[in-house]
Write a structure and sequence with these properties.
The chain is of the alpha+beta class. The chain has helices spanning 35-46, 51-70, 80-92, 110-129, 154-160, 181-191, 205-217, 221-225, 266-282, 311-324, 336-348, 353-360, 365-371, 379-384, 387-390; strands spanning 2-7, 10-16, 22-27, 139-142, 162-165, 192-195, 200-203, 232-233, 241-244, 260-263. This is Tyrosine-type recombinase/integrase.
Length: 407
C-alpha cells in the first residue's frame, strides 16, 4: 500500500513494506521511482536514518527533480549557477518563462528552504563519492577563519581544512518559544488535578504525566512516546531516573540523540507510580506477558486499547487544550515548546551549558550555545517567571553544584 503527496510532476511517496515498516521514495512523472534518488535514500536507510529523515530528504529530492524538469536540466549536468537558481525557484515557484514584476510571499519558510537545499547537496555528495562526476563545486575547503568555538579535535581538522557548502541559506536566528511556569501549570492542571477532599486525581493522569515529563526532562515528544516501563527506574531510597534508549517504534518515533540517562524528581516519579497503578487497574498488565517491555504512553480510550500512543493523537490533545486554555496559554504552543522551556529554565537558573547540552542530548555543546545564546542576556525572561523555583525539583545537578550522573 502506498500513499503520496503531490509536488508538481514528481512526488515523495510513502511505501508500506511487507514487514510493516514504512519508508519513502521519489516517483517521477511516469510514476516510477527515480533511480539516483532511490539509490541515495536506500543509503540513508542502510545508515539507520529515521523514517522522518528519509521522508524529509525524499520531499527535497522530489522538488529538485521538479525543478530539473521545468528548466530542462539533466541531474548530472547542473552548474553552480543552477543550484543558486534552485533557491529562487523554491521561493517563487516561477518557471523559466516567468519574470515577476512585483515581489510576492515566499512559498516556503527560509528554514524549510535550508533543509531542502542541504538534502540536495548531501545527495550530490553521496554520488560524488561513488564516482559520479557531479557536485564537486558545491563544497569548498576552508582553513580556520573567525570561528569563535573550537571543537575538541579542531587542531587536527585545521591541517587539512574543513569542507563547507558554497551555497547556503542565511537565516535570521529566531528566539526559541517558551512557556512560563504558570502556563505549564495551567496546561498540566487542565489534564488532571489533585482533589484534596477525595484524596485522588481527577482527570487524565496520563496526559498530565506527559506534559510534566517533557517540562522536567526536555525530552522530544518522540523520545517520550518511545519510553518503555523498563526505562523508568523508580526511586527505592535513591534518585529515580529514566533511560532514553534508541529502538524501533510502531509509529516511527525514535530517540534521535541516542542513549542517555536523565534523573527526575520524586514528584514526577510519584505521578508515574499513580499512572502505572491506574494502568494495572484498567487491566493493561493482563494483555501482555511483558508489561515492562510495553510503552509508557498508550491508548486508554481509543482502539486498539493499550497500544502505543500516536503522535497525531497527542496533537489532537494539544488542539483541544489550546481551545480550552485560550487566553491562558500561547495559541500556537506545541510539545516542543516544553523542551525549549526546559533548556531556558536551566540556563537562567545557573546550570552550566555543558550540563544542559548533555541533558538535551545535543551531540555538540555548540548546538546548545547557538540555540540558546540569547538566554543568559535576556533580563525580560528573568522578570516574567521564577525560573529558579520552576527548576528547584529537577535533578540536573546536586545541591553542591556538581553534576549527578550522565545527565
Amino acid at each position: 500500500m502506498t500513499t503520496g503527496t503531490a509536488a508538481g510532476l514528481c512526488r515523495a511517496q510513502r511505501v508500506a513494506l511487507p514487514s510493516g515498516e514504512r519508508t519513502w521514495t521519489v516517483l517521477g512523472a511516469d510514476h516510477l521511482p527515480i533511480g539516483p534518488a532511490e539509490e541515495y535514500l536506500e543509503y540513508l536507510r542502510a545508515q539507520r536514518c529515521s523514517p522522518n529523515t528519509v521522508k524529509s530528504y525524499a520531499r527535497a529530492l522530489a522538488l529538485w527533480w521538479d525543478y530539473l524538469g521545468q528548466f530542462e536540466l539533466g541531474w548530472t549536468q547542473v552548474t553552480l549557477q543552477d543550484f543558486g537558481a534552485f533557491l529562487t525557484w523554491l521561493r517563487t515557484g516561477n518557471g523559466p518563462q516567468v519574470a515577476p514584476i512585483e515581489p510576492h510571499p515566499s512559498r516556503f519558510a527560509e528554514s524549510t528552504i535550508a533543509v531542502r537545499l542541504r538534502a540536495v547537496i548531501s545527495f550530490y555528495g553521496y554520488h560524488l563519492l561513488n564516482g559520479v562526476s557531479v557536485g564537486a563545486d558545491l563544497r569548498r575547503v576552508v582553513h580556520g577563519g573567525g570561528v569563535a568555538y573550537k571543537p575538541l579535535l579542531e587542531h587536527i581538522a585545521r591541517r587539512s581544512g574543513r569542507r563547507q557548502s558554497v551555497i547556503r541559506v542565511r537565516q535570521r536566528r529566531s528566539v526559541p518559544p517558551t512557556l512560563t511556569p504558570g502556563q505549564i501549570d495551567r496546561i498540566c492542571d487542565a489534564c488532571a488535578s489533585w482533589d484534596d477532599d477525595a484524596r485522588e486525581w481527577r482527570g487524565s493522569v496520563r496526559n498530565r504525566l506527559l506534559w510534566c515529563l517533557l517540562a522536567e526532562t526536555g525530552l522530544r515528544l518522540g523520545e517520550a512516546l518511545g519510553l518503555q516501563h523498563q526505562d523508568w527506574h523508580t526511586g527505592r531510597g535513591d534518585t529515580p531516573f529514566i533511560e532514553v534508549v534508541p529502538r524501533e517504534h510502531p509509529h516511527e518515533v525514535r530517540a534521535k540523540s541516542g542513549y542517555r540517562r536523565l534523573f527526575v524528581s520524586d514528584d514526577l516519579d510519584r505521578l508515574y507510580g499513580e499512572y502505572v497503578w491506574q494502568l494495572c487497574e484498567a487491566g493493561a498488565d493482563l494483555v501482555t506477558d511483558n508489561f515492562d517491555g510495553t510503552c509508557v504512553f498508550v491508548n486508554l480510550e481509543r482502539e486498539p486499547r493499550f497500544a502505543p500512543w500516536q503522535p497525531d493523537s497527542v496533537y489532537d490533545l494539544v488542539d483541544r487544550l489550546r481551545r480550552d486554555l485560550s487566553g491562558q496559554a500561547p495559541d500556537g504552543w506545541t510539545p516542543h515548546w516544553f523542551r525549549h522551556t526546559h533548556a531556558t529554565a536551566l540556563l537562567l537558573s545557573g546550570v552550566p551549558v555543558h550540563v544542559v547540552s548533555r541533558r538535551l542530548g545535543h551531540a555538540d555543546v555548540q548546538t546548545t550555545l547557538n540555540t540558546y545564546a540569547h538566554v543568559t542576556d535576556d533580563a525580560e525572561l528573568r522578570a516574567v517567571a521564577d525560573w529558579a523555583k520552576l527548576t528547584a525539583g529537577w535533578r540536573a545537578m546536586s545541591a553542591d553544584g556538581t553534576q549527578i550522573g550522565p545527565c
